[in-house]
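Workshop exercise sheet. Pairs work together: one partner reads the sequence aloud, the other fills in the structure field after running the prediction. Swap roles for the next sheet.
Pair: D.N. / O.F.
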Amino acid sequence: MGDIVDDPRLRDRNYVFTGRHDAGRQLGAFIKKLPGIRDPLVLAIPAGGVPIGKEVALALGVPLSLAIVRKVRIPGSTEAGFGAVTWDGQVLINERLRSSLGLSQPEVDQAVEETKMNVRERITRFTGGKGVPALKGKTVILTDDGLASGFTMLAAVKSLRTHIPEGIIVAVPTASASSAELVARSVDQLVCLNIRTTWQFAVADAYERWHDLDDEEVLEELAGIH
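Structure field:
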């Protein structure tokens, strides 16, 4: 299990960041003080992870690229998911949740195929069709705006491992304690400023200003980077 590094001053607190850029700047300054990070590269998970990753990359003076991952949506839901699909087509299903939902194999297959199509569309839209850069020997810093279940992040980590990086650091402004522990088992280090142990957890509760980023906002964030 990788180390979990947090800011004790921000534990179990809400509304500790004004917005994603503020969170990214604080996270970048925090990471910059950590020892032993060799040859880093920042990969951001769109949409919410892009402003976070942008600020972290600026703070460290390193390149930024994207790790495009999408939830496999529960049929009839616009938000909740029971799995994830990564940029290289890998699929990770939460079998316990799938079983509890009673989803049939055809329902799972259809949801996965729809998600794969969405991932391909976002790769074209956000990166012009380019995949992740060469990662062998790099320390990959994987960013998002927070961890709720942690399942999407786990899918990204699973794919990254196939690229043989030097190490994987997950860096997020906020996370539930349970998701932080879950993800830390699969990475070399998890950096999270605001860990919350409360029974109910929402990523948005760490931010004074919060909204879901649309594609145009992501493209604006990426302007001049790709």
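Discussion prompt: The radius of gyration is 17 Å. What would you look at next?
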